[in-house]
Amino acid sequence: MASEVFSYESLVHAVAGAVGSVASMTLFFPLDTTRLRLQVDENRKAKSTLAILKDIVREEGLLAPYRGWFPVICSLCCSNFVYFYCYHCLKASLLKGRPSTSSTDLITGIVAGVVNVLVTTPLWVVNTRLKLQGSKFRNTDIRPTNYSGILDAFAQIIQKEGVGALWNGTFPSLLLVLNPAIQFMIYETLKRYLRREVSRELLSLEVFVIGAIAKAVSTTVTYPLQTVQSILRFGQCRTPTEKSKLLSSLRTIKTLLVNKARKHGILGIFKGLEAKLLQTVLTAALMFLLYEKIVSLTFRVMGLGNSHLKKH
């Protein structure tokens, strides 16, 4: 067990996943800014992604779409390192050289996702606040914040809201471990199928396409919960104060989804999905492409040969 947990192979996968995600998110970051505005700003009209971006640049300046880039990239780098490391450690421990299956991919993805959420949620809470700081909201009920950086945001949140506020949105985040789990299950299944058909290393375009398909499906299925997660991390909604934290979390999720549906119709809970799909599908597809190339190159440089390439 220890050999799987502390292996160079798992470290290679973790570093490759982290580097791939940072590069792809940096390229498509303005699309994520658009998605977040549509999720948390109730009074902002749903327009096309390009129209929202134009509004943001016109009202807040040319660099506004990249506001909060550094804390997001730090969080994403840590999050993907933890996820990829746990995912490949668990797979190695469970399979012990046997071929993987879709059910194994799904279970491994869920467990890795739970570990990732519990470890990195404080980083995502802080980066959500920093990314939205200074934004011009249509909703006048949103209170302005004044954080000078990541450490100051941590300190202010703990001082004013308590340590527990750093884990705002944890419950929907735990439910959302299905997102990467479904994504990895579809990606690995399609990759195994293509490799059986062509008996060679996959082309860049093939990796890009199956990464895009996997992310499109997982994002669409879990999008309403992602909206709730963003609102809770922003910390601008009133949450029920019940003795049971589980019941309180469930009631909060239900209230936010029902209010969205009442105000904007059933499609209101999917407000911002276009921007999210555009951003997340392109980002995930590029991330998987870079990840596969980095892993393949690293194993070749390390002289580990094709056996490792086939296993992963």
UniProtKB/TrEMBL annotation:
This is Solute carrier family 25 member 17. Keywords: Membrane, Repeat, Transmembrane, Transmembrane helix, Transport. SUPFAM superfamilies: Mitochondrial carrier. The chain crosses the membrane at residues 12-31, 68-86, 106-126. Solcar repeats lie at residues 8-93, 100-193, 202-297. It holds the Pfam family Mito_carr. One of its GO terms (molecular function) is AMP transmembrane transporter activity. Belongs to the mitochondrial carrier (TC 2.A.29) family. It is a multi-pass membrane protein. It comes from the Eukaryota. It is found in: Membrane. InterPro entries: MCP, MCP_dom_sf, MCP_transmembrane, Mito/Peroxisomal_Carrier. The keyword Repeat applies. One of its GO terms (cellular component) is peroxisomal membrane.
